[in-house]
Each structure stands twice: as C-alpha cells, then as structure tokens.
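User: Please fill in residues for this 238-position structure.
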C-alpha cells in the first residue's frame, strides 16, 4: 500500500493518508506533495478531500522520532530543509487550485491540526478524536506562517485559548466554535463530507486566483517572515 494514494468520486479527488499516525517527516511530506501534484496534473477533479486510513488518528504532526536525532546530531541543514518542506505542504494546501476539505477521521494534533487549518473546510468525526495544539507544553513556538493558518480557521478568542493552554477540543466543540463545518459520527463522516464536496465544483483558475488574493498575508508570513526563524536554527527540539 502506498503511503499516500487517491481515488476519484466524480469530480472529487479523495486523498488517503496511509502512514499510520501520518507524522511529518521528509518521506511523508514528499509523498503527499507528489499525490497533490498528480491530482492536479492528471485528473479533472474540482474538489480535494483528504482523510486518514488510521482508525483513531488523522495526523499527529511532526515525527519527533525522526527530527530529534537530526537536531541532536547538529545536522541543522537537514532540520532547516525539513521546515522549508513542511512550509511547502502548508503553502501548497492553502493555495491548491480546488476547494479542499479535510475529513478529520480521528485525532488532529500539533502539526496535523495546523495542516487541517490550511484546508478550506473541515469535517470531524464526533465519536472519537481531539483537536489540539500542544506546542506550549512541548516548548515549541509556532512560526508566523503557522499562526496565520490558525487565525484563518479558528476564531481568535478560541485560537488564543488553545494556543496558551493546549486545550483539547472535541468535534462538537469545534463545530460550536466554527472550526469545523460539521461534527459527524464516523459512520456518516465520509458521506457527509463527500456530499458537501460535490457541491463545490468551482473552476480551478478562479479558485487559484481567489486564494492567492485572499491569503496574501499568510503567504507573506510563510515566504518571508518564517525564513529568519528557520535560518536561526533555534528549533527548541530535543
């Protein structure tokens, strides 16, 4: 089974993450980016849905078992390359020339929750899973681009609370605070997500240009403001 794969359901491309907890390391990030390229270049899909094959987890974010040894070996170039690659994924998702929908099929923690914020819409299973940013407890400050993604998807009063406290939100709480479009039992999550996605068949070239204008400030943060933080090599990891 491929680490990441996709199927087509009419005009909707469904990308499935098959890498266990779908933690971010170079192999996983490159696999996701490759499949996103394939969907754009080799299909006529107009909407992208992402889901996880894991029964409990959408994504638990950065693969610290990979990254900590890299930092401990003082291989700072590899660490910097990783964060630039992670930003490529965030940027690619944010500006993807289709409407995008994340089906949170389980826990979305840390980088996994941040990545979900780069999607245009989110649905979340209500019978299992939390949405959480534990970085304050891990001692890992967010990059400016990451904060931009959080502000995009989460009302500021709730983002501030989650940022400062590492609060874990259920799907119902996420729906209440407009972080997800809908909380659904796992039995209906994909049906609800796909029904929603099939109603969002917008022209790619229009979506691309509208996102470039709408998210200009976030893109500036990723492309410009993040760079000195990454180049400083102060990753506070390990």
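Assistant: Residues filled in for all 238 positions:
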């Amino acid at each position: 089974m491929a680490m990441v794969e996709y199927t087509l359901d009419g005009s909707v491309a469904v990308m499935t993450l098959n890498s266990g907890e779908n933690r971010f390391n170079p192999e996983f990030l490159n696999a996701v980016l490759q499949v996103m390229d394939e969907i754009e270049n080799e299909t006529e899909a107009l909407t992208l849905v992402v889901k996880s094959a894991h029964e409990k987890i959408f994504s638990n974010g950065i693969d610290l078992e990979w990254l900590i040894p890299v930092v401990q070996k003082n291989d700072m170039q590899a660490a910097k390359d990783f964060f630039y690659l992670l930003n490529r994924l965030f940027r690619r998702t944010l500006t993807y020339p289709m409407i995008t929908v994340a089906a949170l099929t389980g826990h979305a923690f840390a980088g996994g929750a941040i990545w979900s914020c780069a999607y245009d819409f989110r649905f979340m299973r209500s019978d299992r899973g939390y949405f959480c940013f534990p970085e304050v407890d891990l001692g890992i400050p967010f990059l400016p681009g990451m904060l931009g993604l959080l502000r995009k998807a989460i009302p500021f009063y709730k983002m501030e609370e989650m940022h400062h406290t590492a609060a874990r939100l259920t799907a119902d709480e996420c729906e209440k605070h407009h972080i997800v479009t809908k909380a659904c039992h796992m039995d209906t999550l994909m049906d609800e997500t796909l029904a929603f996605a099939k109603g969002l068949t917008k022209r790619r070239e229009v979506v691309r240009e509208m996102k470039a204008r709408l998210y200009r400030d976030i893109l500036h943060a990723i492309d410009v403001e993040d760079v000195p933080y990454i180049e400083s090599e102060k990753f506070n990891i390990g």
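For context: The domain at 4-197 is CATH 3.90.226.10 (2-enoyl-CoA Hydratase; Chain A, domain 1).
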